[in-house]
Each structure stands twice: as C-alpha cells, then as structure tokens.
Design brief:
This protein is an alpha/beta fold. It contains nine helices and 19 strands. The chain is 28% helix and 27% strand. It has an eight-stranded mixed sheet with strand order 2-1-10-9-7-8-5-15, sandwiched between helices. The radius of gyration is 19 Å and the shape is globular.
Length: 309
C-alpha cells in the first residue's frame, strides 16, 4: 500500500531530493520543530533508544510515557503512532534493515491497538543533514522506500530530514536537531536531550559497531522491562590501536560525519571499544546461558536496575 501525504497516495518511490521538491509543505512542520528550544528529559518515565534499537508502548503504560533518542547526525529517528489507541513506537535508523525495523514497529503498535479502523498510523521523521558524503541522502532514500513499500497505509506527518535539518557554520553543514522525544500520552514530538541514556551503552553500541544490522526491540511494555540481548557481535581488529588514538582520529575513522558528531561521541565510542576488548565472546561472557540482561525501572529515581538472576 502506498505512503499517504495530505490524504493523497504516493505511488512512486521518491528520492529525498525529489521528495523535498514535491512536498515543500514539510518545511513548515519542520520549522515548528527547528524553532523549539531543546528540552532536557530526565530519567523518570523515559525509555532511551539507541542506534539500531526500537521500542514501543501505549498510553496505559504507567512506567514509560516518553520515548527518546539522540546523537543522530546522518541517522534518522522515526516515530510511528496509531491515532486511535495512542500506541507508539520509535526507532533510530542508520540505514541498516530499514524495512524490517519498520515492519517490527507496525507489528508492535498493532499489538496494542484492538481496532485499527479507529484511527490511522502516523509517521514522524527527524534526522540527517546535507553532509558532503551524502550518507544522510542514502538513509532518507531507504526510509522513504520502506514507507512507500509497506503493506500498511502510513500517513507522513513530519519530515524534518536532511535538507530541512541543516544549518551552516562557517560554510560547513551541521544538523540542527540531534535528538527528539515523543510523549506517548500527549502524542507530541519535541526536541530533546537526555543526560541518562540507560544501562549497558558500551554493550549496546558494540553490536552495531561490529556490523549487527538488525534494529532490535529493547522493551517489553507488558512486563515494563528493558531487555538487552542476547546477541552476537563480531571482533573488531586493532581495537587496542583504536583506543590509543586521539579523539580527532577516532572521529575520522569511526564516524560517518566526524566534524558534526556531538560532544558525547568520543566517550560513547570509547565505551564500545573497551567493551569489545574486554568481552570478546558475548554469548560466553555477557549473556551466560543465552539469557538476556534484564532491567526494571526504579520508580523513585527513574534509573534502570538490573534484575537479579
């Protein structure tokens, strides 16, 4: 079934350049986001979603009411919401397994929607910029293709992507928005940053740093638990060499957009490298017995607490 924009079907898959030309009205909705101040979101009721991760919940969830993600330069953050049930999902796409990730999001939202005809599936897209390597173009094109080829009718509401999410600093392009949050109960999207990104960031980043392509679901809204793994990840050659590099070189060799990475990039990638060095065989050293790492949200602090075996 085709993508729906302003009530009309988009039957021909557009490139992002063609999309921007054909649907300039998204500049208006993009400006609404771009003109917002960035809100710092605390730990309580927050589920942070990292690169190649996704999650879903519904307004009746009394533990998680905000989905959030940031550190997106060439990456795209997508929110899918059913207007009837209010169930919503978020994913942080970097171009890998986009169609599969979208299909999982739709399935999760449908699980919390008894009557799909009571509303429609709306999509919000944020991310990317006019980078010189055109990595953002590639991600945008893959996302638009997946939306157009989905078997479900998807209504695109927000598309603050690539062209619309670019500013210039001394003639160098940068993304304007790096992170967004979605208030599931209110059904609102807003610019955000997250001091607390949840547990096991080194482990979670190690997976995509070594080629794990799948966009994995990290949350069970029925048990209110954050679940990491189990999954395999490959070995990274010369990990000690990478760890010895200064920050500028690490950005150069391990980022798609070295100059535009946020300040948190170095510490994040360093944590992943240390994890890869110290835990080279995750199924033996991390996920013993093939069991996932499970966390419960502490209601007073908002922090994720590991579940005892």
């Amino acid at each position: 079934m085709p993508l729906i924009i302003d009530g009309k079907e988009v039957r021909q898959i557009p490139t992002v350049d063609k999309f921007i030309q054909s649907f300039p009205r998204f500049k208006e909705s993009s400006n609404e986001l771009l003109n917002q101040s960035t809100k710092e979101v605390g730990s309580k009721h927050l589920l942070y979603i990292g690169q190649r991760e996704l999650a879903a919940t519904w307004p009746g969830d009394d533990v998680i009411s905000v989905l959030g993600s940031e550190d997106a330069t060439t990456c795209h953050i997508m929110v899918l919401r059913h207007t009837g049930s209010g169930a919503a999902a978020m994913v942080h796409f970097d171009g890998s397994s986009v169609a599969g990730g979208l299909a999982t999001m739709i399935s999760l939202v449908k699980d919390f929607t008894e009557d799909m005809d009571s509303g429609k599936l709306e999509v919000h897209l944020v991310g990317g910029f006019l980078d010189e390597r055109k990595n953002s173009h590639e991600v945008s094109d893959k996302v638009l293709k997946a939306l157009c080829e989905s078997p479900d009718h998807l209504h695109l509401v927000t598309a603050c992507i690539t062209h619309f999410n670019t500013e210039y600093r001394d003639s160098v392009p940068f993304p304007v928005i790096y992170g967004v949050a979605f208030d599931v109960r209110a059904g609102t999207l807003f610019r955000a940053t997250f001091p607390d990104k949840g547990p096991d960031l080194g482990l979670r980043s190690a997976r995509h740093c070594t080629g794990g392509k799948e966009n994995i679901n990290i949350y069970n809204p029925k048990t209110h638990q954050l679940t990491i793994g189990p999954f395999h990840y490959g070995r990274l050659r010369d990990v000690d060499l990478f760890l010895s590099l200064p920050e500028s070189h690490m950005r150069k060799y391990l980022s798609t957009s070295p100059e535009q990475e946020p300040e948190t990039f170095y510490e994040s990638i360093k944590a992943a490298l240390i994890h890869l060095r110290d835990f080279p065989n995750p199924m033996e050293t991390v996920f013993k017995g093939g069991k996932p790492k499970i966390y419960n949200k502490d209601q007073s602090s908002g922090l994720w607490v590991p579940q005892l075996s």
